[in-house]
Amino acid sequence: MKYTNPNPSLTLPLSGEGTRLQHTPTDPPPEKGGLGGVSAVRLILNQRTQLPATDSVALAYDERKRSRLKVTLASGAEAGIFLERGDHLHGGDKLAAEDGSAVVEILAAPEKLIEAVANSPSLFARAAYHLGNRHVPVQILPTENGGKLRFQTDHVLAEMVRGLGCTVCDTEAPFQPESGAYGGGHHHGDAEPAPDLHNPGHGPHRSVPKIHQFKPR
Q1: What is the enclosing helix (H) or strand (E) of 157?
Q2: Are 86 and 187 in contact (CB under 8 A)?
Q3: Kind of pairing between the strands at 78-82 and 94-97
Q4: Which of 29, 98, 112, 171 is most buried, most CB within 10 Å of its CB?
């Protein structure tokens, strides 16, 4: 008996039939890797260096905290920054290209900030303490009579330091806040040892205990 296909159309398979259509794409597939197209750029910046800079790029604070970033250099060239996770950049840092073709200096770009001015050392200390207690990045600028504290725009915090007695105003300046005491700070050179969070300075016998070491008394 001659069999006749009840569904001659390849585009409308019967339920469960599983006909696979052949499709030839007319456009090339998009670049993989995501990250805003960083993987598509030719100039990859992934090595810290002290060599003289051949180019530069100005980045705001939030951009300098990113470990993957596509940037346009002062020369107009496009580049991709690839750093270890958690490795932050500071104004004055320099990155070498993977192929050695360029050295790019990182500049801290001016951005809108709030500046609190304290006219005495005690007020300066109190304002810095309360800002630090809110876990916000703060740039500390001591002066003869007290100091200035700069932080990203937050009107609630502005009212707080104003209530403490500081003079508060808006400003625009490069933002380089204090680094954390236990890491993520500025790299000052290979000779400076990195802090060991599992050995807080009291010897290996005082390292952080594991959860299975907590036993009932």
Answers
A1: helix 155-164
A2: no
A3: unpaired
A4: 98
**What is the token pair recorded at 32?**
């993989």
pLDDT, tens digit, 9 for 90 and up, residues 69-80? 999 999 999 999
CATH number at residue 142: 3.30.70.790
**Cα–Cα distance for residue pair 30/23, rounded to 1 Å:** 17
What is the domain-level CATH number for residue 59?
2.60.260.20
Structure tokens at 50: 């002290």
Percentage of the chain with pLDDT > 90?
A: 61
For residue 181, what pLDDT is reported? 57
Residue 21 makes CB contacts below 8 A (sequence gap 6+) with 10, 11
Q: What average pLDDT does range 179-201 have in this prediction?
A: 46
CA proximity to 102, closest of 74, 129, 126: 74
Q: Verify that 88 and 133 share a domain, yes or no.
A: no
State which residues form the domain around 167. 110-174
User: 163 near 173, Cβ under 8 Å?
Assistant: no
Residue 136 domain-assigned? Answer: yes
Q: Rounded mean pLDDT of 147-166?
A: 97
Q: State residue 127 phi and psi, 5-degree precision.
A: -65, -40
SS3 at position 139: strand
Task: Answer yes or no: is pLDDT of 129 > 60.
Answer: yes
Q: Are 150 and 161 within 8 A, CB to CB?
A: no
Is 211 inside any structural domain?
Answer: no
